[in-house]
Amino acid sequence: MNRLLDTPITYLPKVGPKRAQLLEKELGVRTFEDLLWQLPYRYIDKTVFHKIGQLSENETEVQVRGVLRRVEVLGRGSGKRLSATLRDSSGSIELVWFRGIDWFKDRLMVGMEYVVYGRLQRFNNRWNIAHPEIEAVGRNTRPAATLEPVYPSSEKLNQAGIDQKLRRQMSKALLEKLSEKDLPENLPSYLIEKLKLPSRFSAFRQIHFPTDTQQLRWAQARLKFEELFLHQLRLLQIKRIRKARNKGFVFEKVGEYFHRFYSEKLPFELTSAQKRVIKEIRRDLGSGRQMNRLLQGDVGSGKTIVALMVMLLAVDNGFQAALMAPTEILARQHYQSLSKYLSGLGIKMAFLSGSVKGRQRKQILQALQNNELHFIIGTHALLEEPVQFYNFGLAVIDEQHRFGVAQRARLWKKNPKGLPHVLVMTATPIPRTLAMTLYGDLDTSVIDELPPGRKPIKTIHWTEHHRLRLFGFLQREIARGRQVYVVYPLIEKSEKLDLLNLEQGIEAMSRAFPPPKYAIAVVHGRMKAADKEREMQRFAKGEADILVATTVIEVGVDVPNASVMVIENAERFGLSQLHQLRGRVGRGAEQSFCILMSGNKLSQDSKKRLQTMVSTQDGFKIAEVDLELRGPGDIEGTRQSGLLDFRIANIASDQHILQTARHLAIKILERDPQLKKPEHLPLQQYLQSVAGKIKGWGQIS
Ligand code: ADP
Ligand code: MG
Fold first, then answer.
1. Does residue 397 sit in helix, strand or coil?
2. Measured from the CB, is residue 560 less than 6 Å from ligand 1?
3. Which regions of the chain are under pLDDT 50?
4. Measured from the CB, is residue 305 less than 6 Å from ligand 1?
5. Which residues lie closer than 8 Å to 571 by C-beta, 6 or more apart?
6. Residue 147 neighbours by CB under 8 Å, 6+ apart
7. Which of 23, 45, 258, 260 has the fewest CB atoms nearer than 10 Å to its CB?
């Protein structure tokens, strides 16, 4: 089909081959369609004129209107510039040009009225605008007062004369060439009516050249909805097709391993949430379909036990199971806690990561392939080619939003007889909308209950003024037999300073908590593994009262007697990190405390983070605030995956639209699973056109 939208942009006026090449290189714009999707990232409100006499620091970019009073060339050499004065009834402002001096000098006319727009600067106690946009006000032609689009740009484009003015001209020319039929509707008309959305065509026109703010919002909402709705539809369809197609091994038996663990080893009663989730998983495992399930739960909600019991089910049914974690420390921690829980049960397991090498590695790989191992626990090293199973039946993936869908899919290939079941666990809760987008193709289970007997952790925000009070408080807690974590940030970017900070902190602690009365253990990222282990052990065994550490303990130790978590420079940690760290305490019967130490001067965001920590312990709530503050682009591990690269939607600020989109997509697929009804034809066509093309999802379709 020959579409006007596929026309190269060289067919637009003023876009020759050179400029076209540059636009493609800088922005990836080659066709009309690409250009259409280059949406303005902001708008200049040209409906407002500022009074020159009332300009203030609050304005960054201003539009003024006045008569040109003076135009002259000043200075010489590199200081040479064209200077002009623009005056309105309230005052005057200087306009300056450092480039194109002669060109402007010839054209600007003293005594004429101009509309001027640009970035306001203060120089020698006077306002000025350098290189303003300037346009003469003709006798009859008042400049159109509108919202003017500002497009993504680059230095190179500007240098080649592809400035905002030309970009606007290009958009304008493009929209003049297009008509409704070039942008056919892709949403069913009943949805458009129900949601009162503008057509695609008018939405694009409004977004490039809005008539007013309200119409602009509607137009944006239309495209955001379209984008999120089609994405959800796609994910739900992937899920549906996979369910229909992907047979799964049936784990029908609850066998000896599971029973013996449950009756002999399980050291506590499962919470009702844990029981419910295990039931949900068992239903999947008995269904004959491959399980693809996301398990969410707050820090400390007991996901590990659930994973372990599901892994035992695999073994009971003659399959091997893998548990994969995003970091070596976390993987080792899992290995250790599983070994502890299962001791004496006869489960054979091994640990594998990049650091397991040589003979040992060879032996593990052999054993795995010969069915001499029930479990393998490790890092993404498990995904590698040489890792082959005898009969792989279940993969549990502990994620920190790090494993891409493509990586997940690599695990599937490790059993030629069929697809292993997959259980994905998130290390910390993620907001609903993020889960919908990242894991929208998975079924979801949530452990929404903490094990009983956990007392809320008292969280306090203190500054340097409270230092002595802090030490006094810690001394009292230690006197009562408690243990204390003190955590410092250690970030690669500022490593030297951070290490110095840590050193000084340790010194101060050693003075306030001198031996032999007190013992301090120290663990940080720069230490040798064996030293780290020794220090951790001293703390775990209760030989040390205080563990001073960098974030290495973020995911790691489980010491129920440690009831105080002090976080130094707390303002430098992200919310989910703070939440993870706080989750290290509150595991025993004692009242626990988390003390956030920070400087006095805090940015708005830091304040909000610390306030959030003080006011709530609900990991899901904290995750929501985190998403709000950081935006989806900064959520760990999602950037490179491209999964959240929407063209216009933003899942942090467009949560409502996303929820509506998901809800409607589910309803439509319920009524018409194959999208065969005539009114769904456009949807069907869309899904076919993108089959396998949604970023990051291709491999699983
Ligand atoms: P998560 O991985 O969800 O953060 P863990 O699985 O590490 O949490 O469990 C946290 C702690 O709670 C562990 O010490 C674990 O033994 C304990 N735990 C788990 N489930 C229960 C339960 N039902 N009752 C009491 N303690 C539990
Ligand atoms: Mg865990």
1. strand
2. no
3. 555, 639-640, 694-701
4. yes
5. 598, 599, 602, 603, 606, 609, 610
6. 43, 44, 45, 46, 47, 210, 212, 213, 216
7. 45
Q: In this predicted structure, what is the pLDDT of residue 499? A: 82
**195 exposure class (CB count in 10 Å sphere: 0-12, 13-18, 19+):** middle
Q: Whose CA is nearest to atom 26 of ligand 1?
A: 451
**Which residue has the CA at smallest separation from atom 18 of ligand 1?**
302
Q: Are 582 and 616 in contact (CB under 8 A)?
A: no
CB 649 less than 6 A from any atom of ligand 1:
no
CA neighbours within 13 Å on the CB side: how many for 385?
0
Give nearest CA residue, ligand 1 atom 2: 303
Return the best residue to mutate from 268, 428, 581 for the ligand 1 pocket (most ligand atoms within 8 A of CB).
268
305, 337, 557, 617, best to mutate for ligand 1 pocket (most atoms within 8 Å of CB): 305
Counting ligands in written order, the one closest to the CA of 300 is 1
Beta bridge pairs of residue 293: 423, 443
Of the candidates 615, 587, 601, the one whose C-alpha atom is nearest the C-alpha of residue 483 is 587
pLDDT tens column, 293-349 = 999 998 889 999 999 999 999 999 999 999 998 888 788 889 999 999 999 999 999
Each residue's pLDDT tens digit, 528-573: 878 888 888 899 899 999 999 987 555 456 788 999 999 999 999 9
| Span from the CA of 452 to the centroid of ligand 2 (angstroms) | 17
Sketch out the chain's domains with CATH numbers.
Answer: 48-143 (2.40.50.140), 256-285+302-426 (3.40.50.300), 458-616 (3.40.50.300)
Q: What is the pLDDT of residue 640?
A: 47
* Angle in degrees, 0-180, between the axes of helices 467-479 and 495-512, rounded to the nearest 10: 60
